[in-house]
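[Meeting: bench + compute handoff]

Bench side (C.D.) handed over the final construct sequence. Compute side (W.E.) agreed to return the predicted structure before the next meeting so the bench team could plan truncations. Sequence as handed over:
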Amino acid sequence: MTIVVGLVLCVAGANAQDMLQVEGTTPDLYLTHTVKKGETFYSLGRSYSISPKDIATENNISFDKGLQLGQTVKIPLNNNNFSQKADAVTGNTPVYHKVEEKETLYRLSLNHNKVPLDNIRHWNNLTGDGLKKDSYVIIGFLKSGGGIPAPSAPAATPSAPVTTAPVSTPPATKPEPVPAKPEPVVTKPEPTRPEPVTTKPDTPVATPPATTPAPEPVKTAPATGSFEQIYAQQTSNGKVTTEKGPGGWFKSNAGAGKYYALHNTAQRGTIIKVTNPLNGKYIYAKVLESIPQIKQNAGLIIKLSDSALEALGTSDAKFYVELNYEN
């Protein structure tokens, strides 16, 4: 028995860029990817659910050197990003194998981690063991990483792709300043007519001592000016902390030229200089709150308001940055 006709017809019209096609054999299974404009090790790692450094190691590329436009790289398929379990269909991206001359279902299983034959039959609506040359067969699923587009699946009964919208973390609301407590107003009571007092001639009348009002507290004016000017004031003592690592972003309605940040160690109100080392562009961002401790923020050293991405010359959800701020 061969793959159903619907599978062959769908594959014939599918664009190669819409499908993930496995290469290699057990235990060295991988995908190939051609680097597009703006792609980095971090963006590929997010798309294929794999460590960016594993991609660099697999291709013998220096992690610090980065990727080149049009470069072809191997994406390893391992237990972290590739599943061949029967229930791996939901929410994951299918990976296909192109059937070769005289290839059997059993040989296909051996060459792809001994995936169970029943799983292959189920994923591809097969009723027997026969395969047709040049047809495409699902042999597993790439675990969802948030960056792979839904493929034009050639299966006879494809399920609608599940697309999860990125979760945007709203910036913490800057607290309103607390007005200074006004001084209490003391109202003098209306004088009452005293009763006549008869005193002895030698008895002096004691006069109460005069009271001195407490001085008003001296208020220190906060640093004012542009974020760059405030940064210069904050770092004038020469104690500057430097950090390097991945950054992320959150949706903000801040005006043009005003950039805000979430950071775990700098105090609220600190101005951080953020530099994109890939192009030398930098901005100054004001810290609002700490980074929320949720899964999607794992490993980030800073999150910036969305308007900062264009100023830094990047459009990636995660990007490499260098930070400088008051120690």
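W.E. noted at the follow-up: Confidence is low (pLDDT under 50) at residues 1-17, 146-170, 211-222. C.D. will use this when planning the next construct.
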